What we know:
The complex is a heterodimer.
Chain A: H1 6-21, H2 28-53, H3 62-79, H4 83-107, H5 112-130, E1 142-143, H6 158-180, H7 183-193, H8 195-200, H9 205-231, E2 233-234, H10 236-240, H11 242-255, H12 262-280, H13 287-302, H14 306-312
Antiparallel strand pairs in A: 1-2
Chain B: E1 2-11, E2 14-24, E3 29-33, H1 40-47, E4 55-60, E5 63-64, H2 70-75, E6 78-80, H3 93-101, H4 108-121, H5 137-150, E7 155-159, H6 167-182, E8 186-190, H7 194-200, E9 203-208, E10 211-216, H8 218-223, H9 225-232, H10 236-245
Parallel strand pairs in B: 3-8, 3-9, 6-7, 7-8
Antiparallel strand pairs in B: 1-2, 1-4, 4-5, 9-10
Helix pairs in contact in B: 3-4, 3-5, 4-5
Bound molecules: adenosine-5'-triphosphate and magnesium ion (MG).
Amino acid sequence: MKFNSVGQIALVVAVCAYLLSVYFMASPVWMGFTINALIVAVIAQSWNITGGFGGMSSFGHAALYGTGAYASAILQVQYGVNPWLAFAIGIVAGAAMGGFIGALAFRYGLKGSYFALVTLAFAEVLRICASSFDITGGGSGLQLKLEPGIANLQFPDRTVVYTLLLVVVALVMLVTYMIKKSRFGAYLVAVRENEDAARALGIDTYKIKVQAMVISGAFGGLAGALYLQLWLFIDSTVVYGSAVSIEALIGPIIGGAGTVWGPLIGTLGLHLLGEGAKHLLPNAPGLNFVLYAIVLICAVRFLPRGLMGLAALIGTLKTRKDEDHA
Amino acid sequence: MLEVRNLSKSFGGLKAVSDVSLDVPEGSIVGLLGPNGAGKTTCFTMIAGFTQPDTGSVTFRGEDITGMPPHKICTRGMIRTFQIVQPFAGLTVQENIAVGAYLHHHDRREAMAIASQVGKRLGMGNMLDRPASSLTIAGRKRLELARALATGAKLLLLDEVMAGLIPSEITEIVGIIRQIREEGHTFLMIEHVMQAVMSLAETAYVLNQGKLIAQGTPRELVKDASVVEAYLGHGAAARLQDENHA
Lengths: 326, 246
Ligand SMILES: Nc1ncnc2c1ncn2[C@@H]1O[C@H](COP(=O)(O)OP(=O)(O)OP(=O)(O)O)[C@@H](O)[C@H]1O
Ligand SMILES: [Mg+2]
């Protein structure tokens, strides 16, 4: 991967250094905190595919996250399906939900705030459904049996969990990178930049947008299924609630939408900020969301291309005169 | 290569295009002229699949493509450009052109190589790495043409690629279009710049208030009384005649 400035390289190195340093920190709090942030980074990358690269801002990525988590939980709790298989089906369920929402919304040409509202509505409807049926455990949610062991996809050792999550995040970023450098990625950006021009140039924009929703759904379902395996418990508010949707979009916007590293950088940065605030003012629950809102407003106003965009301005490297530049 | 038959389109009560038929033979450059609001762009949007015609048919290379979506028409080898240029602002010039090249070349290196080749052919070699948003109007018009060419389309519908250019830029783009035609492309072009139409097009059609009012070589058309009146108003032809005689 090539970066076009010293600033971006420094930012990425700093993030990697932090992620490594977590292994050596004395307090286990850091690892637990970073584990949560890494799961959020996956749903953030999910948002980034559609919102960042494709310019389709969703307010309802919880619909994908919750579907992955619930599909996996229902299969394990109600039908005794093998956790690995249930996990995989959770990803597929997320992808299917993404494709369904996309097919419906784009069939009717929804864009901009209309698309955002429809995704929000989907997430809310799913949240209400999940809290009302027996199969989803109703209001009390679903609890996996505690059966530690690799066969059950439950890892009691925090360090192992952390390492596995790092691998997952790296894989998700690799897939994102491959998308970015592919024909599909170029088409997705073309759709974001100018849909009419894209159509004129032979792009089936409907298909591209639905495909993006499917990939985004797979990432979202993955994040939800990861959350389930980590906490062994979900309910409708936790996985379909709007807090998930907000966290999905805020990381990429702060970090740099439409970049490979932006979602991870933004998510980690925000969570560090929120965590710091919690320690400074321990009696103000929900303060982190107030902070997020302030940061989001500032980012939208002053950092239109996020931290990655800001870093790009620092020590710009001369682009090489060849065919393939980052 | 392209046959348009009895195309009509109304917007509310306004008949923007009525009963337009035209032919574009392979290898030719055909002009589409007419005053502002005549319905030229609306013809393009219907031919290229962006809007459904109320009536009429469009046949391209013997296939009926009426009502087909634009991406399918483009895949078959016909593409339109936009009067109001539509660059992908956040991408570089080369990446813009590559989006066109991806149509038939799925590999990134190939698409980028073709983009650079097409860009150089259109005299944009030194701007390939610049963001499209930094281009002047002349650069953007050229980018429209470059992207369209990169798709490999054989019939290009150009909507006022010369509007807003200074004379030296017009001379350049006329040369480029001529060169592209030599390489086996066909053009249907909307143009207000008469100098360009005169030097490029073999035949031209004139639209006024949605209707075709004349057809012929550009030289014949500038002498045609109905054409002159469409542009300059009722009675203009007679007045010009008088002035010439006086
Ligand atoms: N989408 C639309 N809805 C309503 N009216 C439209 C629409 N598109 C075009 N028109 C009207 O149709 C008529 C023809 O417009 P069109 O853009 O085709 O003209 P044109 O010949 O391309 O003119 P110009 O030389 O100014 O580009 C105009 O009166 C215009 O206002
Ligand atoms: Mg027009």
